[in-house]
């Protein structure tokens, strides 16, 4: 009897080890790395049932992708995707309570993580089709996450800045350089799509950035922003920051008149 119990115990342990979910999927190929910008991470949990203690990597991948994408779009907006997905599962011990069923199947609790990314190559293609991407008022109001926050602050800028201004988006301060670059890029795009302003070329800003040794994601004082704007020939400079507000985050933007150094407008949105 003891041998039978020992044999059954070893069989259960073996099936637990062999059936644990472990999936790596949708890894960004090295040759495509320049096309994606990682702006954050997301995580979800979900359960799976394995008949005969066998799981399908494709099914687990699809389940993880759908849940991760939904969570990423809720947190960062609809203009994102997820890559570098990792799924790890743990055998749920209460399966043993089902008696003989545990020998032919089990339930697992899976934790899935992924990088939240923006496809830069697709965003560049948008420039040639601006009219297709100008959001209407309903889309602005209903948009969520960082994308929704950017749409709202961009719309405030478009409404308040003097037409025909030459505008330079100097920096967005945050603890993630890629995230800051993404926000700057989106705000620039929205300003360009309004067809009301001239936006300083990013290459010109990069030259000044290197000369002045400031980071796109770092804090820039008003006096420094005005000075940089003067070098770029801009008459409006835009700076901002992303800060934590409890469980939420806040995107704050301010536009300065380069000539008078006065604040032209400010906008902030939580997400």
In short:
This protein is of the alpha+beta class. It contains eight helices and nine strands.
How would you describe this structure to a colleague?
By secondary structure, the chain is of the alpha+beta class. It has two domains: 103 residues, Translation Initiation Factor IF3 (2-Layer Sandwich); 137 residues, Rossmann fold, CATH 3.40.50. It is built from eight helices and nine strands. The strands form two sheets. It has a five-stranded mixed β-sheet with strand order 6-5-7-8-9, sandwiched between helices. A four-stranded antiparallel β-sheet has the order 1-3-4-2. Helix 2 runs parallel beside helix 5 and helix 5 crosses helix 6.
What's the helix and strand layout?
Elements: H1 2-19, E1 22-25, E2 36-51, H2 57-76, E3 81-91, E4 105-119, H3 120-126, H4 137-142, H5 145-160, E5 166-173, H6 177-194, E6 198-199, H7 202-212, H8 222-232, E7 236-245, E8 248-257, E9 263-270
Parallel strand pairs: 5-6, 5-7
Antiparallel strand pairs: 1-3, 2-4, 3-4, 7-8, 8-9
Helix pairs in contact: 2-5, 5-6
Keywords, separated by commas or semicolons:
271 residues, alpha+beta, Translation Initiation Factor IF3, Rossmann fold, 2 domains, 8 helices, elongated
Biggest beta sheet attributes: 5 strands, mixed
In CATH terms, what is the architecture of the largest domain? 3-Layer(aba) Sandwich
Let me know the number of strands. 9
Count of helix runs: 8
* Strand order, largest beta sheet: 6-5-7-8-9
Helix content: 25-40%
Structural class: alpha+beta
What Rg, in angstroms, do the CA atoms define?
25 Å
CATH topology of the largest domain: Rossmann fold
Q: H/E element string?
A: HEEHEEHHHEHEHHEEE
Give the low-confidence spans.
Answer: 127-132
- Number of self-contained structural domains: 2
- Assign an overall shape: elongated
Distance between the termini: 61 Å
User: pLDDT average, as an integer?
Assistant: 80
Strand residue percentage: 25-35%
CATH class descriptor of the largest domain: Alpha Beta
- Assigned CATH superfamily of the largest domain: ABC-type transport auxiliary lipoprotein component
């Amino acid at each position: 009897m003891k041998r039978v119990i020992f044999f059954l115990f070893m069989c259960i342990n073996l099936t637990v080890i062999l059936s644990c979910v472990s999936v790596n999927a949708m890894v960004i190929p090295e040759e495509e790395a320049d096309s994606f910008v990682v702006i954050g991470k997301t995580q979800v949990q979900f359960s799976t049932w394995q008949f005969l203690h066998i799981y399908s990597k494709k099914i687990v991948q699809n389940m993880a992708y759908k849940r991760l994408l939904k969570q990423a779009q809720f947190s960062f907006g609809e203009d994102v995707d997820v890559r570098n997905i990792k799924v790890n599962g743990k055998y749920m011990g209460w399966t043993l309570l089902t008696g003989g069923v545990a020998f032919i199947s089990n339930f697992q609790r899976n934790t899935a993580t992924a990088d939240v990314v923006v496809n830069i190559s697709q965003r560049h293609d948008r420039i040639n089709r601006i009219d297709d991407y100008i959001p209407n008022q309903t889309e602005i109001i209903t948009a969520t996450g960082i994308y929704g926050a950017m749409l709202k602050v961009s719309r405030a800028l478009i409404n308040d800045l003097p037409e025909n201004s030459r505008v330079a988006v100097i920096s967005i301060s945050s603890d993630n350089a890629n995230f800051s670059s993404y926000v700057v890029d989106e705000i620039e795009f929205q300003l360009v799509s309004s067809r009301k302003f001239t936006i300083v070329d990013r290459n010109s800003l990069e030259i000044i950035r290197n000369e002045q040794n400031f980071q796109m994601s770092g804090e820039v004082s008003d006096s420094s922003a005005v000075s940089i704007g003067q070098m770029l020939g801009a008459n409006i400079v835009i700076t901002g920051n992303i800060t934590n507000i409890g469980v939420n985050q806040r995107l704050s933007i301010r536009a300065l008149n380069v000539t008078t150094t006065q604040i032209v407008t400010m906008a902030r949105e939580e997400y």
